Amino acid sequence: MRLRNFLLRVADIHRFVVQVIKHFFMPPYEVREIIRQCFAVGNRSLFLITFTAFIAGIVFTRQSRPSLASFGAESWLPSLVSQAVVRSLGPLITGLICAGKLGSNIGAELGSMQVSEQIDAMEVSGTRPFSYLVVSRITATTLMLPLLVVYADVVALLGSFMTVNFINSSSFALYFNEVATNVTYLDVFSSLIKSAFFGFAIGLVGSYAGYHSEKGTTGVGKAANSAVVISMILIFVIDLLGLQVTNIFRR
Amino acid sequence: MHYPETYTSTSHHAEGERNVVATVRNLKKSFGDREVLKGMNLDLYESENLVILGRSGTGKSVLIKCMVGLIRPDSGTIEVLGQNVFSLNPDELNALRLQVGFSFQGSALYDSMTVRENLEFPLKRNLKIFDKHKLEELVTTALEDVGLAHTINQMPAELSGGMKKRVGIARTLILKPKIMLYDEPTSGLDPITSMEINDLILSVREKYKTSSIIITHDISSAKHTSDRIIALIDGQNKMEGTFEALSETTDPDLEPFFKY
């Protein structure tokens, strides 16, 4: 029975993903709602991303410096920090913050709409709620995550620069010249593509959990919770897969 | 009334003077092991208020959700305005749904939108009306019809239960449906507000010439709004007739409704 339920759930998720992908290529698009959701995605997570990315930049720099100093390689600090931030730290921090903030939000929002029959009300008034509620949210998270990652990278590097500047009085131009020299196009593009997948996963998991939420207030709680947990796991899985694929090109 | 298993109907076939606008034949629906509908049948006539009376959990709401394609039945046929609901493609089903208003038990107002936005939503999305003056006129008229024009800029959370039900009805009326489906319209309301909702159901029929199915277990609501009642007991039609005829029943399943 449990296996049967599991297989039914897998089939249901497959149907959901296929429907989402179909809607990506099937106009009309909910342009106004997508723009509104993009704004909401940025607005909801900007403060947290600024705060965490800045601190992560400082901490990583402070922790790496003594090790590099012991080899006499302190000058490699901007290179090390920039590659770590652009390749992994920035996307991962942004992904995890968004999974917590946006995943739970989408799951709870759609879950409460499901429980209070608002989605059914849209359905019976011929409004096509799937496109309006689900596809617009997934599109928004997919589009916004790369932008947020670029922002997080810049903030983390600023945090790192301020730390270096505080210790060594290093100049802004020198630091960022080192950064620009050591970060490749492959680093940037792989990071952006990976973040788009993070965004897709966060939107998809949140929407699925909310759209299929069980009735009752516990259903909404479960939807929000599973949206966060599953999207966080998926972010690490995508990060790992992304690394493998990028390494093929790096060779 | 006898309903043959292989009943077929034409779009608007007359029985006496009246046209049938919706038919349900031998409808069955189970959730897991629980059989909720065990062969439900009904005909809804033009401009008629048909009450489906029954205890909680007997499949009344499932019936009307099947009628608008929200729930797929296990077997049986449903024809609404001459169209077999489950043979329609998504576009055809959406077009049919525009002609069928559904008033939900919990109102189902979009809680992130104001009353105005709730009413504008189906107009903008379905009828592609974006002209501000036209929208204002339609929204105001629909709200005036339910006596709540003053709530236009309020959020659903600021409204009482009865007001939410009225706004929910206004949101469906704005699309000028031919059929109205009311799911427990008076549940959770005090007797005075319930009576106001009952009066509203009658006035909607007068003004919009709708045919309605009213799902309820509230006997005073059934008495006030019904032209005809179908008693749904244990997932099947138990009895059918006017309120007066049914109130004289000695059937042990039905008598308690009229006794208390």
Automatic annotation (TrEMBL), chain A:
<feature type="transmembrane region" description="Helical">
    <location>
        <begin position="188"/>
        <end position="211"/>
    </location>
</feature>
<keyword id="KW-0472">Membrane</keyword>
<dbReference type="InterPro" id="IPR030802">
    <property type="entry name" value="Permease_MalE"/>
</dbReference>
<keyword id="KW-1133">Transmembrane helix</keyword>
<protein>
    <submittedName>
        <fullName>ABC transporter permease</fullName>
    </submittedName>
</protein>
<keyword id="KW-0812">Transmembrane</keyword>
<dbReference type="GO" id="GO:0043190">
    <property type="term" value="C:ATP-binding cassette (ABC) transporter complex"/>
</dbReference>
<feature type="transmembrane region" description="Helical">
    <location>
        <begin position="223"/>
        <end position="243"/>
    </location>
</feature>
<dbReference type="GO" id="GO:0005548">
    <property type="term" value="F:phospholipid transporter activity"/>
</dbReference>
<dbReference type="Pfam" id="PF02405">
    <property type="entry name" value="MlaE"/>
</dbReference>
<feature type="transmembrane region" description="Helical">
    <location>
        <begin position="34"/>
        <end position="60"/>
    </location>
</feature>
<feature type="transmembrane region" description="Helical">
    <location>
        <begin position="155"/>
        <end position="176"/>
    </location>
</feature>
TrEMBL record, chain B:
<protein>
    <submittedName>
        <fullName>ATP-binding cassette domain-containing protein</fullName>
    </submittedName>
</protein>
<dbReference type="GO" id="GO:0005524">
    <property type="term" value="F:ATP binding"/>
</dbReference>
<dbReference type="InterPro" id="IPR027417">
    <property type="entry name" value="P-loop_NTPase"/>
</dbReference>
<keyword id="KW-0813">Transport</keyword>
<dbReference type="GO" id="GO:0016887">
    <property type="term" value="F:ATP hydrolysis activity"/>
</dbReference>
<dbReference type="InterPro" id="IPR003439">
    <property type="entry name" value="ABC_transporter-like_ATP-bd"/>
</dbReference>
<feature type="domain" description="ABC transporter">
    <location>
        <begin position="22"/>
        <end position="259"/>
    </location>
</feature>
<dbReference type="Pfam" id="PF00005">
    <property type="entry name" value="ABC_tran"/>
</dbReference>
<keyword id="KW-0067">ATP-binding</keyword>
<keyword id="KW-0547">Nucleotide-binding</keyword>
<dbReference type="InterPro" id="IPR017871">
    <property type="entry name" value="ABC_transporter-like_CS"/>
</dbReference>
<dbReference type="InterPro" id="IPR003593">
    <property type="entry name" value="AAA+_ATPase"/>
</dbReference>
